[in-house]
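Write out the 3D structure for:
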Amino acid sequence: MKLVILLIMSLVSLTLGGPLKESAVQNPLAEMLTNRNNCKDGKTCPTSATCCSSLNDESRCCAYPNAVCCSDGLHCCPVGYQCDITSNTCMKGDEMLDADLTRMYKNVICPDGQSECPDGNTCCKLSSGKYGCCPLPNAVCCSDGQHCCPSGYTCDVSSGTCTRGNSIVPWYEKSPATPVKVESVVCPDGQSECPDGNTCCKLSSGQYGCCPLPNAVCCSDGQHCCPSGYTCDVSSGTCTRGNSIVPWYEKSPATPVKVESVVCPDGQSECPDGNTCCKLSSGQYGCCPLPNAVCCSDGQHCCPSGYTCDVSAGTCSRGNSIVSWYEKSSATPINVESVICPDGQSECPDGNTCCKLSSGQYGCCPLPNAVCCSDGEHCCPSGYTCDVSAGTCSLGNSIVSWYEKSSATPINVESVICPDGQSECPDGNTCCKLSSGQYGCCPLPNAVCCSDGQHCCPSGYTCDISSGTCSRGDNIVKWTSKLNANSTIKKLQTVLSASSDIICPDGKTSCPSSNTCCSLGEAGKWGCCPVSNAVCCEDHIHCCPSGYSCGTHSCQKGSKHLPFLTKSTGLLIIENPNVKDDQHLLFQPDETISHEKSGDNIMCPDEKSSCPSGSTCCQTPGNIYGCCPYQAAICCADLIHCCPSGYSCDNSIGTCTKDDHIMPWANKLPPF
């Protein structure tokens, strides 16, 4: 078809008085496309250039013909010269030539930064939205997403040609670009990186930027840099070395380092790639900066693979080889996107599927788009069928083991506390009074509460009771019905009952469900060891994890040693809510007590409630005050718990922490 079009155009041209111009069909373009040097890795360089290999055997082009490729894999010199890497120059006898750092170049990087085209090509977007390569320099990209024209020409999509005045040539077809394989230079902060052949330089912001030169000199203005061996002349904006003066280079921002992480066995923390997850003395995971490391029993150190920890000497040994041990650092929490289950109250990790358990609640299948099996415990990959009798998943002749579901986690939703202090609405709702006088929830933020006590309107709208609509100017929408609000008192009771469900042998004390009741030896008092099925030590102070025995100074299991765990005071079970436990529980204060009547009591900030001397007033949901049984206590942000002075509230696991010491936090009682 193109040939027919060209013949027709040739006839038209001859009719108009002459042949087509020679420049329209030959020389610069054709010569540039056909006369190229093939490099070892299949890439090409122009005939006027030389193929050189970088240190990673990737081809680069040196703009000199028959050039000398320097051993650093970055530079080159003209034929007859020798590379002097130390001085960054090209030498020929006594003659010195500055090595042009731009002489060796690689492919053309496309604007997306993720694809590249051969040198001498132009990046053009394809109809798919990705980048392709036009085999011309500075080409014009045609709107059909498949073709291109030489620089200065216009695409004629209807005829499939390129035109410039009377000159008409066929258009060129684009080819797909190749993904960029970029070696990176990691900057000293360990969090940013620059492309291969660049130098990390601090910007004026204090963050790192990239100078497009290897081993560059970073200028003090925080924006520019100079080639190796040169000095920055900030006043003139140049780089100097003796009589040689060149323009300085501008830095570009560095990119964040994408680090693969090692997920720790708890599934909730991770360490950098090349590290090993090791348990700390706190029971949480830390990171040993070695691969496949040996975790030492002191809970703070680790040794290289194949070595043995010598805790007494603080070293690592293997035969006659003795090296210092390494210190662990804290692991970082994993930020996981969640899949919300259909009940709206539970969620699973990203890449999982919500499946109903036999209990009727939702569990998590560790596969995307999985098939939930009818036994309520297992699941199969997408497209497979559950064979409950065989405990397998089948797809045609393919049979694989089925997967086990795990429990989903409850969704933590922030609530809006209503003005009465006793009811709440979901986050993003507005509290509105119902016709009953109680509060309800309008499912809109900053809503307008309608006077009928049942409906509400979006922010900025007016309720039209007669028509049952919301109006703003000419815009009229249906109004929204309110829902009943939840009781914060019931929520408090639920939290209390769920958090203290192990009854100690005295029948009067309780510990959190994941703890163990241990005797404190004081007149039959009981305390809580912060692990389940623990071993209670005879000193009535310490305890050890299951399987360990209480030693003189630590918990022992064969050659393993762990620091002692410390018991905390148990929580008294309140049978009569009017009886205050001023030793263990955080409880509701007395209603309205005057200063004269309060005696040694502490008046709370609302000036209506008081707590016993030696306790602390803490706010609860709804601006109600409760009493924490510790003096100068820490009131936790959940408005339900508190911790002793010097401890911090750990909301994630429901404890009070101070260095390596962990104790259960205290609970508030519901209002009376």
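The helical segments are 2-16, 28-34, 488-499, 595-598.
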